[in-house]
Design a protein that fits this description.
Elements (H helix, E strand, L loop, with lengths): L4 E5 L3 H14 L3 E6 L3 H11 L6 E2 L2 H5 L7 E4 L7 H9 L3 E4 L7 H13 L4 E3 L7 H11 L6 E9 L2 H10 L11 H4 L2 H11 L5 E7 L29 H5 L8 H4 L5 H10 L16 E8 L2 E8 L6 E8 L2 E6 L4 E6 L5 E4 L13 H14 L10 H20 L3 E2 H17 L4
Helix pairs in contact: 1-2, 4-5, 5-14, 5-15, 6-9, 9-14
The chain binds nicotinamide-adenine-dinucleotide.
Length: 429
């Protein structure tokens, strides 16, 4: 394979389906080693990437111990295993593509930013929406002044009822303790895109929301701990049988088991977390949340809603001369200039745009390759400093929600960055 040499940490869903797939389908980067504790995942991806057995490792630490063998590293482990490998690979001289969130804690995210500065390395964070043609066009329309002065934004993340059940009730991101609050794990993308479109830092933030529905007291009569034993399963829209035991074997079915046969999936529903009743899980993240933000006078409202039919993002942007209405899932943008005819923009989609996150995943990887090929390439769209901003916004929103308050972002930003700086570098500060 051609292109810069890269090592991959984690061959799970993202490692395999995005990073492995990009290397295989485009040949623009060469994954020369990988670390993954799961034998089946490690070997099956390594075989396809033609990685020799002495370059396949069970743990990222084993891979690190062989010294610097590539230009960059992709860290695609779960949220609770980002900071430690990121810091160690920075020390070892690697540039990094790091999965979002940077860390499940704000201190951890700041730590990666500070270490990237200390070791003068470049870290990209996988805020993939910035790389989609759709959001690039939306931003271009705002920045070119098409709708006049920017006055406000209304952004909605419609999670989708079954996606909520899959990821945030039964799945990996259900627990604040194990990963992080939903505003970070799901909506740091949205915080990031709002900040990027406006091009200014957030000044004030407040938030409301809670876990209203996916709770034990909402369990209907006749329901059981597992869908396979449930007497009312056929009337339940969140039934695991409906979501996982159908004719499809892509995402999310491929998350529940390595064995995607009907029997394999049935076993996973009988024994694993994805067969649990949605009212009887150990979830604690919110199922709806609103965030109000002020950006130096520009007002923004964001809604994350689980109870939606569609799984999509929608955005309305208000300017002094007109409005933009965007429907991400349909790649449609309406430009409604006051007193003029509506202009409909349909974002053209090539082959790539049908892949992960409307092409965002692969375009982001193109940028990562460009960064590795050019030591002076600094204009990375999703640099660690820029990405830290979305994490600061998400944590401030969570604090505001829990403390029923409005947070002044300038203080919040400097207090948190200073605190972590002092903790790490002590008196040097
Ligand atoms: N950018 C995006 O839009 C986007 C979308 C989905 C997920 N994510 C993020 O990507 C990350 C990975 O998510 P996923 O769905 O692929 O999770 P996953 O659980 O499918 O994959 C993580 C992999 O890391 C492996 N791993 C665990 N310990 C390891 C170790 N010590 N060394 C090496 N590998 C180890 C696991 O065995 C697993 O295969 C998460 O942080 C998630 O939040 C980002």
């Amino acid at each position: 394979m051609a292109g810069p040499k890269v090592i991959l940490i984690g061959a799970g869903s993202r490692g395999r389906d995005i990073y492995g797939a990009y290397a295989l389908e485009t040949s623009k980067m060469d994954i020369v080693a990988l670390a993954e504790p799961n034998d089946q995942r490690r070997n099956s991806l390594a075989e396809r990437l033609k990685i020799p057995s002495n370059r396949r490792f069970r743990d990222w630490k084993d891979l690190l111990s062989v010294g610097k063998i590539a230009d960059g590293v992709i860290i695609a482990t779960m949220d609770n295993l980002h900071v430690e490998p990121a810091v160690e690979f920075l020390k070892a001289g690697y540039d990094i593509l790091l999965e979002k969130p940077i860390d499940r804690t704000l201190d951890g995210a700041i730590k990666v930013y500070l270490y990237a500065q200390k070791y003068k390395r470049r870290v990209m964070v996988a805020h993939v929406l910035r790389y989609t043609k759709f959001f690039r066009k939306v931003r271009e329309l705002v920045w070119s002044g098409t709708i006049g002065d920017l006055i406000g934004i209304e952004h909605k993340e419609n999670v989708g009822y079954w996606h909520m059940a899959h990821s945030f009730v039964r799945g990996n991101w259900r627990s604040k303790e194990e990963t992080a609050p939903m505003i970070l794990t799901k909506s740091c993308h949205d915080m990031d895109i709002i900040y990027w479109i406006i091009g200014k830092k957030c000044s004030k933030i407040s938030s409301f929301g809670n876990l209203m529905y996916f709770r034990r007291e909402k369990m209907p009569e006749g329901a059981a701990e597992r869908c396979l034993d449930c007497k009312v399963e056929d009337t339940c829209p969140y039934s695991a049988l409906k979501i996982y035991l159908n004719s499809k074997t892509g995402w999310p079915q491929n998350v529940i088991s390595e064995d995607l046969s009907y029997e394999g999936r049935l076993k996973a529903l009988r024994e694993g977390p994805y067969g649990r009743c949605v009212y009887a899980c150990d979830n604690d993240v919110v199922d709806h949340q609103v965030v109000s933000m002020d950006f130096e006078g520009i007002s923004v409202s964001f809604t994350m809603q689980a109870f939606t039919f569609e799984m999509d993002r929608r955005i309305r942007i208000f300017g002094s001369k007109g409005e933009i209405q965007g429907h991400f899932g349909k790649s449609e943008i309406d430009v409604l200039l006051f007193g003029k005819e509506k202009e409909k923009i349909q974002i053209e989609s090539g082959d790539i745009d049908t892949l992960g996150h409307a092409g965002g995943d692969f375009y982001m990887l193109d940028d990562f390759v460009k960064m590795l090929e050019d030591p002076n390439y600094e204009s990375i769209s999703t640099s660690i400093r820029d990405s830290l901003e979305s994490h600061l916004m998400a944590w401030a929103a969570e604090n505001a929600r829990l403390e029923n308050t409005v947070i002044d972002m300038e203080n919040y930003r400097s207090e948190n960055i200073d605190k972590v700086y002092k903790k790490i570098f002590g008196e040097e500060s």
